[in-house]
Amino acid sequence: MTFDPSLAQAALQQFNAIVQSTPGLRVREGQQRMAQQVAETFAQTRLRSEADEAEGDTPEHSIAVIEAGTGVGKSLAYAAPAIQMALARGTRVLIATATVALQEQLVHKDLPALAAAMPEPFTFALAKGRARYVCKLKLERLAGDEGFDEDGLFPEETDTQTGTGTAAAQERHSFYKGLADDLATGLWDGDRDQLAMPPDAALWAPVAAVAHTCTGRHCPLFSVCTYYERRKELVAAQVIVANHDLLLSSIGARLLPELGNCLLIIDEAHHLPKTALSQFACEMDLSRLAWLQQLASRALRVSAQVQLDDATDLAACVSRLRTALQDAERLVIDLYGMPLRGATARAPAPGASHRARVPQGQLPEALSEAIAQVLQHAGEFLEGLRAVAKALREHIRDEPQDARRLSQLYAQVGQLAPRLEAIHATASLLLQEPGEGGAPAAKWFTLTADPGGIVVRAHASPLLPGAALARHLWSSVRAAVLTSATLTSCGSFDFFLREAGLANEPGVTTLQVASPFDYPRQGTLTASSTLAAPREVAAFTGQMIEALLDDLTQVQSGALVLFTSREQMRQAVEQLPDALRATVLVQGQRPRLKLLAAHRERVTGGQASIIFGLQSFGEGLDLPGRLCESLFITKLPFSPPDEPVDEARAEWLRASGGDPFMDLVVPATAMRLAQWVGRAIRSEDDRAQVTCYDKRLLHTGYGRRLLRSLPAFTLLERPASAHETG
Q1: pLDDT in the model for residue 162
Q2: Which of 85, 86, 208, 348 is buried deepest, with most CB atoms within 10 A?
Q3: 496 with 271: CB under 8 angstroms?
Q4: Within 10 Å of residue 399's Cβ, how many Cβ atoms?
């Protein structure tokens, strides 16, 4: 296809037509600007299928980063022009969100409405990871009378003593039998999310339709497989809604459209860097190794059945790997003494965990050599295992009459393979050295008390999310839009662009679209002070709670109080006077949906209702109108770098001449605070009062930087009361 700039104009015209013809919608300048940017971005590059690769045509990508304030209507602003352009170009739209709530809104509300309004029909579908679906073949085995391994262990129990005669094993068998019965009678469709009660992860894992255990078209139940039925819907869909995790985990796979041949939209994009660190991090267990022998035994049994001569060295291979892992475990405890050796001597209570980070990401030489042995032997074992799997797939293809039994064997071997791959990946990242001027990987070890003894684990993670995203994601993308209500920090996109791997990238455009709300008229921000500084924890908390409780007596309808720690919230709950206690709903004391329903019922009935919540209630909570007329922020939501990756990054920044607090902590806090404050005004008709009890907001330089990230509320200052003595 030849690039046609008129596509952008046609896409924008389609957006305008939908706004004008849909009751309840009206033209908004900010939404119009966003839609125009989306259209222009998606028209400015050719997709891989449109490029003449044979002639060396390698077009650059076109990426827009758009901050769209609350109320802009960003879903319509990106979906309408993107879908119109995809239809015109014969490609597809992939939308990735961070939360289930937004996925459901898109699939059940926004996209159906858009499909009804557009002249050319389009289809859409929700994409989930294959582990969300049941493998009917594995379930058949576990629900049957022969649902136990011939080695006497429950099929997926590798490190505990749950045998065939125990009550726990029988309970698991009953669970699987119930799932199988519901499938057979049509009461359940095989989607984990459609179960009345979400199953425990340990119960679900053995029947999940993961790739390692799947023989695909060779499976005797392929024609009725829930996962492949859903995948057919994805193949036919012109718009696919996924989440950030699935987007990153499926790069290079065939579940989602090829990133170079689709229009990619990443909503709630401020979550993407954190998701990337989680996605590309890895860990391995150095202590619980019984599963290794079980995996080798399964592989050897299979290799004997398929007459694979090359698998005879598997037993020796697993022995070498086990020895290497045990050597590494001993070295970790010896080298990192405190807290690990001290924790071992104290026999920590169950659940207690201790951590030791590797300074500068430089492993001691002896440990580096031990990890190198782990990497080598894990690689050898993986190679042998892949040979077994390949031979087994060939037998399944050549002997379809025996496909059921052979596919069951394939699933048993594949169930444990991800653990081996995790060992290989973790050892590889632990041994990784930074390139010239590059950041090292974060590396650390943990020791945890387990019912079966002490467990030592090794962990590794990329240090910079931007570098990981640049390598794994942006190298494949041709056209993308990233959007959220909070992408600027302290008035600039710089922090997000660095975190997302888009800083100094050619073809990247930024746009800030203001909210249509009249913040000075609709709300006030009161910067309240305490005599004690926040670093004086006990005194500050006491004074803050005293001021908060006094303010809560003035609440007439709905209010939200956001705390920075569970202990801070606990103290506030303890000090509630009887007159307020019945009015307060505390996060964690009842399920989230039931808590919010009770809050709405109270406010709708004319009563006052106050929610006490933590970080997770500071984002994604939609309480319009009277449901949140008062918002109280007990303390600025700083997140000090006390996690291993944060610590390692702060260490690297200092060594590079940077300031971790100003370069990392303050920008991240600015985005988090903007999300918190965003709970207050949700529509043009809302009125709200926001109160922050942290005097650093007005009386420090970085506090005033944080203010620049917030909506332009009418700002009021309330000095500390003379009676506040802590």
Answers
A1: 40
A2: 85
A3: no
A4: 12
**Do 198 and 287 have their domain in common?**
no
Residues 74-132 pLDDT 10s: 999 999 999 999 999 999 999 999 988 889 899 999 999 999 999 999 999 999 999 99
Residues with Cβ within 8 Å of residue 133, at least 6 apart in sequence: 190, 191, 192, 208, 209, 226, 227, 230
Mean pLDDT of 531-557: 95
Q: Is residue 230 part of a domain?
A: no
Virtual torsion, Cα 600, 603, 609, 615, nearest 10 deg: 40
Stretch 495-501: mean pLDDT: 97
E strands, 149-286, where? Answer: 239-243, 262-266, 282-285
| 166 and 81 co-located in one domain | no
Q: How many CB atoms lie within 10 A of CB 110?
A: 19
In order, the DSSP letters of 143-185 are HSTT-S-TTSB-TT--SS--BTTSHHHHHHHHHHHHHHHHHHH
Please answer whether residues 318 and 381 qualify as being in contact, where contact means their C-beta atoms are separated by less than 8 angstroms: yes
- Pair (147, 209) in one structural domain: yes
Range(s) of the domain holding residue 362: 282-432+439-460
225 inside domain: no
Is residue 665's pLDDT more than 80?
A: yes
Residues 525 and 589 in one domain: yes
CA distance 120 to 124: 13
325-334, 391-400, 432-441: which has the minimum mean pLDDT? 432-441
| Tokens of residue 371, six digits | 């990890």
Can you spell out the DSSP letters for 498-559?
Answer: HHTT-TT-TTEEEEEE--SS-HHHHEEEEEE--SS-TTSHHHHHHHHHHHHHHHHTT--SEE
Whose structure tokens read 């064997």?
Answer: 409
Element (H, E) at 561: strand 558-562
Same domain for 582 and 689? Answer: yes
* Burial bucket for residue 49 (CB in 10 Å: 0-12, 13-18, 19+): middle
Domain count within the chain: 4
Are 380 and 300 part of one and the same domain? yes
Q: Count CA atoms within 13 Å of residue 630 on its CB side.
A: 20
Query: Before 81, cis peptide (omega within 30)?
Result: no
Predicted pLDDT at 51: 58
Residue 169 has pLDDT above 60, yes or no: yes
What is the chain's mean pLDDT, rounded? 89
Query: Do both 260 and 405 map to the same domain?
Result: no
Using the structure block, give the residue that is written with the tokens 């202590």.
287
